[in-house]
Write a structure and sequence with these properties.
The complex is a heterodimer of chains A (316) and B (343). By secondary structure, chain A is mainly alpha-helical. Helix content of chain A is 59%, strand content 9%. Chain A is built from twelve helices and seven strands. Chain A is elongated. With 343 residues, chain B is mainly alpha-helical. Classes of the chains: A mainly alpha (316), B mainly alpha (343).
């Protein structure tokens, strides 16, 4: 559990300082290095230690896009220059894509969009779920029944289809900010029912305890009772729900952007990066375009570890 | 029991109606219309207006919905604007393909996940339970710890961490690299052309195309089932009735595989109701990566073409699929546990 949280924190930190971690500007196209393979930095040269350097690539077969490391030349890595942790001309730690953009730089930049959208959507879903579940738990009766049937309907429907239906109401091409807000909002609309059900169960249980009765006796109204006394008791359960929802949200963004209904190409998100992997040929010949898929797997892995035994998501 | 089923069927019908109606209205609200793609850009305004009138794009959305709903109640979902064919058979054909994919995935996940879950359920250390009487508490009994549960747990954690989209891409890479399996589609072009090919050959061809998408869809689900089953069996193994059975001399294997596994079936069956929606969501990604001609792809194409009746038809099919899956899951639960029937 602790290792999961540490890994998650590391990824979030990397996303926060991504401009510093990126080796090149994420949008810069290196026209002489399309589909360049990943390059390893070296520290040993001529049998002795050497300041870290890379061998630049040389295109040996333009047709098959085959590169070879030029062993005769060394490009030293420059640390803490140009506002970056490390950089070097013509160094691509994880290779480049079809337009010659550095995959590593786009990966850390894209983490902001992909994880940011999941974070915002989580907050939205938790807020809606907490309010709906709380109201249902306190009100009981007809309101409770209606809200729970509604949550059941949303819960049963396949999330991606709801997303697609909501997406159908907007133009196909959208600016990045609109996509960000729309997808986060739509995901919150899809994700709230599971939160609401858990919160309702906790709130209904807590409402029958003595401290709730004491609060009512002291003159607390329904709103105060719910938000000051009952919802805080549901906080641990809400935290678990956030961890359960986050992987699905990250994945939904990736899927939407992958099929071209989310962020649009110049933007770097893990989903738009995976568009490079849309053709089987590209996957087979340049497997490093799949790196964003691995990044998703790592983040979901960290969340699974952080969750531990506390509960499990359905499928994925 | 009949009231229970009726209630669930009504719920499913309501689900389908609400989903399809919102899909229709939202798709109509979108700016841009289907005529640009259908008649092209270089046509006279008159021809475009005629096309708009033919498709009913000039009506108010409410009126269009009312007309659509009236026909849909008689199971006539109109004709697709893009394909010019009735929506119902078009959707049914694609839904069948998705059903094949999701059904195979569910079967595979069940056959892998459930037995592994039963086998890997770890009993809590019995020495730690206060109710076990032992002579000489000073000498702790050495227990052989098998690495099997830990291995299964590692595997299920990894499988849970690779969602279907990721897994489909990785498997496509593997298939493309090794050339062992086809990377996309449902049938190979050669097999479809060979009229003389027998039924068996065609099934074998389909099976080869199924491997990648089914694995991608099924592994995370199998991991979910394994986790749930393992937890349920571990809990059941601590129950008094298992201890009593053990005292009667029932062998450990039978305790685990028959007594505890059956007692733990309830919570796992409850999962199945929710799996239908998860499978559909997952199959959307898998269908797009592996070019499987299923419902998800049809919905996607309809969305791009602004084909309003087809979008509504696909949404209806997805809701029906999810609703029926939940209904089946609930029926299984009610059959296994009488308390559910009266809830």
């Amino acid at each position: 559990m602790r290792s999961g949280r540490a890994l998650l924190l590391a990824v979030a930190l990397a996303a926060a300082v991504s401009p510093w971690l990126a080796v090149h500007p994420p949008a810069r196209q290196h026209r002489d290095a399309l589909f360049a393979p990943p390059m390893r930095p070296h520290v040993i040269a001529a049998g002795g230690l050497h300041a870290p350097f890379v061998h630049p690539l040389r295109l040996v077969d333009p047709l098959a896009r085959r590169y070879e490391a030029d062993r005769s030349r060394r490009v030293p890595l420059r640390f803490f220059s140009e506002g970056r942790l490390v950089t070097a001309d013509g160094w691509f730690p994880l290779g480049t894509d079809a337009l010659g953009r550095d995959v590593w730089s786009r990966l850390v930049t894209g983490a902001r969009l992909s994880l940011g959208i999941a974070l915002l959507a989580c907050l939205g879903a938790l807020a809606i779920g907490a309010v709906v579940g709380g109201v249902a738990g306190v009100a009981g009766g007809l309101v409770d029944g209606a809200l729970m049937r509604l949550s059941e309907m949303v819960l049963v429907l396949p999330a991606l289809y709801i997303l697609l239906i909501l997406r159908a109401s907007l133009p196909l091409v959208l600016p990045d900010l609109t996509v960000f807000l729309f997808v986060a909002g739509a995901l919150a609309l899809v994700g709230w029912p599971s939160v609401a059900r858990v919160v309702r169960a906790v709130v209904a249980r807590e409402a029958s305890l003595d401290y709730a009765a004491a609060a009512v006796a002291a003159g607390a109204g329904r709103g105060r009772l719910l938000f000051k006394h009952l919802l805080p008791a549901a906080l641990p359960a809400i935290g678990t729900q956030a961890l359960l929802l986050a992987p699905a949200f990250i994945l939904a963004e990736a899927t939407l952007s992958y099929v071209g209904l989310g962020f649009m190409p110049p933007a770097a998100s893990w989903g738009t990066m995976l568009q490079e992997a849309a053709s089987v040929r590209a996957i087979a010949d340049y497997p490093w375009v799949l790196v964003p898929a691995l990044a998703i797997a790592v983040v979901v892995f960290a969340i699974t570890l952080a969750l531990g035994e506390r509960g499990e998501a359905i499928g994925r | 029991m009949i009231a229970f089923v009726l209630r669930r069927v009504l719920f499913t019908l309501l689900l389908v109606a609400v989903t399809a109606s919102s899909a229709l209205l939202l798709a109509r609200l979108a700016p841009g219309d289907a005529t640009t793609e259908l008649v092209g850009e270089n046509v006279s305004a008159g021809a475009r207006a005629a096309e708009r009138a033919r498709l009913g794009l000039d009506e108010s959305p409410a009126w269009a919905w009312a007309r659509w709903a009236g026909r849909a109640a008689r199971l006539d979902f109109g004709a697709s604007w893009r394909y010019g064919r009735p929506v119902a058979p078009l959707v049914a054909e694609r839904a069948r393909n998705t059903l094949v994919l999701a059904g195979c995935a569910l079967l595979f996940a069940t056959m892998v996940g459930i037995p592994l879950g039963v086998a890997s359920a770890r009993e809590k250390d019995r020495a730690g339970n206060g109710d076990t009487f032992r002579f000489r508490p000073s000498q702790p009994r050495k227990r052989k710890v098998s690495p099997f549960p830990a291995l299964v747990r590692l595997g299920s954690t990894l499988a849970l961490s690779t969602p279907s989209l990721v897994l489909a891409l990785l498997l496509a890479w593997l298939a493309a690299r090794t050339g062992w399996l086809p990377t996309g589609g449902m049938t190979s072009a050669g097999a479809a052309a060979a009229e003389g090919a027998g039924v068996l050959a065609r099934i074998a061809d389909l099976a080869r195309h199924l491997v990648v998408p089914v694995l991608a869809l099924a592994l995370p689900v199998a991991a979910t089932l394994e986790r749930a089953q393992s937890r349920a069996v571990a809990r059941a193994l601590e129950e008094p009735f298992v201890r009593n059975a053990r005292a009667r001399g029932i062998p450990e294997a039978r305790l685990r595989w028959v007594h505890a596994a059956r007692a733990g079936a309830g919570p796992v069956l409850a999962l199945y109701g929710l799996l239908a929606g998860a499978l559909l969501s997952g199959s959307f990604a898998v269908e797009l990566v592996t070019a499987w001609p299923g419902l998800g792809r049809l919905m996607y194409e309809a969305l791009l073409a602004r084909d309003v009746p087809l979008v509504a038809g696909c949404a209806a099919a997805a809701a029906l699929f999810a609703g029926l899956g939940t209904l089946l899951g609930d029926l299984l639960c009610a059959w296994a546990d009488p308390r559910v029937r009266h809830a």
